[in-house]
Amino acid sequence: MADSGALPAGFGELEVLAVGTVLLVEALTGLCLNGLTILSFCKTPELRTPTHLLVLSLAVADTGISLNALVAAISSLLRRWPYGPDGCQAHGFQGFATALASICSSAALAWGRYHHYCTRGQLAWNTAISLVLCVWLSSVFWAALPLLGWGRYDYEPLGTCCTLDYSRVDRNFTSYLFTMAFFNFFLPLLITLVSYRLMEQKLKKPGHLQVSTTVPARTLLLCWGPYALLYLYATVADVRSVPPKLQMVPALIAKAAPTINAIHYALGGDMVHGGLWQCLSPQRSQPDRAR
């Protein structure tokens, strides 16, 4: 299906259309919400704080995921991959790098919140910038390794988008999958869980925490857990035994992460009362500032 309009094995016409439609909705929703988050940070000086820089990093990563989903949606609706093998490699690298950046940005944000609530000290700019640089350099590093020979990018079972190849059973691929999953899913998940758990223990009185301590970890588990399980399964068994339709489920679930993150971190926080409201109602914010 990468080179023609023929339906891939295991998929019908309606199923391909359904996948393309779901990806399109997820892409447009994620682009709109995270675009508003980025715009609010750029236009509202009050939001330009070290903590919100971590939110901005997450929004940029999620925007990249949504753009990746948009390309996959268009290809699915066309019923073919029109960008060739090089386009597949670029699509896989871009999607994987932004996915890793989104996961690690969530962990960095969890640590930043722990620092704010438990040490009662403002996060310093140099610390926030260092965290963001570390997140993105690490994500690009891990995403570049398949281009250099450790792992590989290939088409998803539907044949209209590209991701990390988990169908190989040789040691080169399984070692990369296991190592990548440990450092880029389980370790960030552990940091997120420990950070919010320590916040709960230190601030036991109700009303002291203005953020949810359960949603971030649940989002990581819900959106990226299926992918992690698929990768780990591929390290011990032949993943080709899993039906193609079932293999597409983790991809569809993961593309919902940008929307969930935007609702939790931006729409559910002080950004909606500041920058987002000013972006959506600029004519009203000017008189308010004049007063």
TrEMBL record:
<keyword id="KW-0681">Retinal protein</keyword>
<keyword id="KW-0716">Sensory transduction</keyword>
<comment type="function">
    <text>Receptor for all-trans- and 11-cis-retinal. Binds preferentially to the former and may catalyze the isomerization of the chromophore by a retinochrome-like mechanism.</text>
</comment>
<feature type="transmembrane region" description="Helical">
    <location>
        <begin position="173"/>
        <end position="196"/>
    </location>
</feature>
<dbReference type="InterPro" id="IPR027430">
    <property type="entry name" value="Retinal_BS"/>
</dbReference>
<feature type="transmembrane region" description="Helical">
    <location>
        <begin position="123"/>
        <end position="145"/>
    </location>
</feature>
<dbReference type="GO" id="GO:0009881">
    <property type="term" value="F:photoreceptor activity"/>
</dbReference>
<dbReference type="InterPro" id="IPR001793">
    <property type="entry name" value="RPE_GPCR"/>
</dbReference>
<dbReference type="GO" id="GO:0007602">
    <property type="term" value="P:phototransduction"/>
</dbReference>
<feature type="domain" description="G-protein coupled receptors family 1 profile">
    <location>
        <begin position="33"/>
        <end position="265"/>
    </location>
</feature>
<dbReference type="GO" id="GO:0004930">
    <property type="term" value="F:G protein-coupled receptor activity"/>
</dbReference>
<keyword id="KW-0812">Transmembrane</keyword>
<dbReference type="InterPro" id="IPR000276">
    <property type="entry name" value="GPCR_Rhodpsn"/>
</dbReference>
<keyword id="KW-0844">Vision</keyword>
<keyword id="KW-0297">G-protein coupled receptor</keyword>
<keyword id="KW-1015">Disulfide bond</keyword>
<feature type="transmembrane region" description="Helical">
    <location>
        <begin position="53"/>
        <end position="78"/>
    </location>
</feature>
<keyword id="KW-0157">Chromophore</keyword>
<dbReference type="GO" id="GO:0005886">
    <property type="term" value="C:plasma membrane"/>
</dbReference>
<protein>
    <recommendedName>
        <fullName>RPE-retinal G protein-coupled receptor</fullName>
    </recommendedName>
</protein>
<feature type="transmembrane region" description="Helical">
    <location>
        <begin position="90"/>
        <end position="111"/>
    </location>
</feature>
<keyword id="KW-0675">Receptor</keyword>
<dbReference type="InterPro" id="IPR050125">
    <property type="entry name" value="GPCR_opsins"/>
</dbReference>
<dbReference type="GO" id="GO:0007601">
    <property type="term" value="P:visual perception"/>
</dbReference>
<dbReference type="Pfam" id="PF00001">
    <property type="entry name" value="7tm_1"/>
</dbReference>
<keyword id="KW-1133">Transmembrane helix</keyword>
<feature type="transmembrane region" description="Helical">
    <location>
        <begin position="16"/>
        <end position="41"/>
    </location>
</feature>
<keyword id="KW-0807">Transducer</keyword>
<keyword id="KW-0600">Photoreceptor protein</keyword>
<keyword id="KW-0472">Membrane</keyword>
<dbReference type="InterPro" id="IPR017452">
    <property type="entry name" value="GPCR_Rhodpsn_7TM"/>
</dbReference>
